[in-house]
Amino acid sequence: MAKNRHWKKSSKLNDVCYDIRGPVMEEAKKLEERGNTVIKLNIGNPAPFGFTAPEEIIEAVASNLRNAEGYADSRGLPSARKAVIEYCVQKGITDVGMDDVYLGNGVSELIGISTEALLDDGDELLIPAPDYPLWTAAVSLAGGKPVHYICDEESDWLPDVKDIARKITDRTKGIVVINPNNPTGAVYPKEILQQIADLAAEHGLIVFSDEIYDSILYDDAKHVSAASLSDEVLFITLNGLSKSHMIAGFRTAWMVISGNKNGASDYLEGINMLASMRLCSNVPSQYAIEIALKEFQNIHALTRANGRLLEQRNYGYQRVNSIPGLSCVKPRGAFYLFPKIDTEKFHIVDDEKFVLDFLMQEKILLVQGTGFNWHKPDHFRIVLLPPKNDMEVAFDRLEHFLSNYVQSS
Known about the structure:
46% of the residues are buried. The N and C termini lie far apart (47 Å). It contains 14 helices and 15 strands. Helices cover 36% and strands 16% of the residues. A hairpin with a 5-residue loop joins strand 4 and strand 5. It has helices at residues 23-33, 55-62, 78-90, 106-116, 133-141, 161-166, 190-203, 265-277, 283-295, 299-303, 308-322, 343-346, 351-362, 388-402, and strands at residues 39-40, 101-105, 124-129, 145-152, 158-159, 172-178, 206-210, 234-240, 252-259, 326-327, 336-337, 340-341, 364-365, 367-368, 380-383. The chain is α/β, with parallel strands linked by helices. The strands form four sheets. It has an eight-stranded mixed beta sheet with strand order 2-9-8-7-6-3-4-5.
């Protein structure tokens, strides 16, 4: 007779959450299965909202499918890595060689590789709060301890460098910077990034710079790559085409190692081991990189005056701040809003319950602020990608919902 066992998830997942695709999204799926239409403002996935890549990028991938049938070098195609190096030079990162570039299946995979290769049990990585939650999850899965430093809403969500300094211990291995930031849309000035780089140099820390939204900028915002500011720090810079070229499903990204590599040979060997163990990243999508970086930066037409993303950013910002009980810092990059909600007015003690209540009543899917490792239940994230008519519906329903909402215990 077969023995029955209870299979439990690994204890490594105890401190891991990814609420962007979490329990509330599962409830949204159930609503759809019952025939409801749900407007999804929970995930930054451009394609479902009508954003498409330039035809030339699609053709570059399609025409090379026969050339992509075999494994590539574990770091990636030489032509693609060379294009990444040239892009680095444009960003002021000048000390990058071919062996310093790794192509990956999205920045997500590369975050995993860079943390797993570095962290022993109990090692700490400083991560912004709020953050893109994969960083916190990856550190936990690697056996490390995520330590969150505050980004200050009163200072347009810029990192509190003094808070970073206070939280450095003898177990700290590095500082994560997400610029432009997801979920706040903050774009960090050179002065703040220089202070972080100087702090890293003083304490011998690595700076991990997640720059996936570096081309999605509004108004007069300028992006500065952290790795362009110091040769005394080891930098791990991560970027890709998912957002800037609207090909999230291609999972096309890269990781660049630059700066002070003295004493890093063992860590870099670990990165190379993990990159080799997955054999290589998706080869067909690597053929998109060279043409995308050299010839097609169509994203700027969407973020300039009269551009769709700029207009949707402006509309969303105006609507949020017009609803009693809500306020929001204007994002200068990416395509999200991170509104603050008056928890006393609405008696909110559980922000996941708030977004679930909103979903069930109004069929709009959001993500609660604590899903981004924010420490209070007083924020939520809105994706600004849907067409304006859908956004109008979403904000009308949000305003209607909040007109009489009081959270029940």
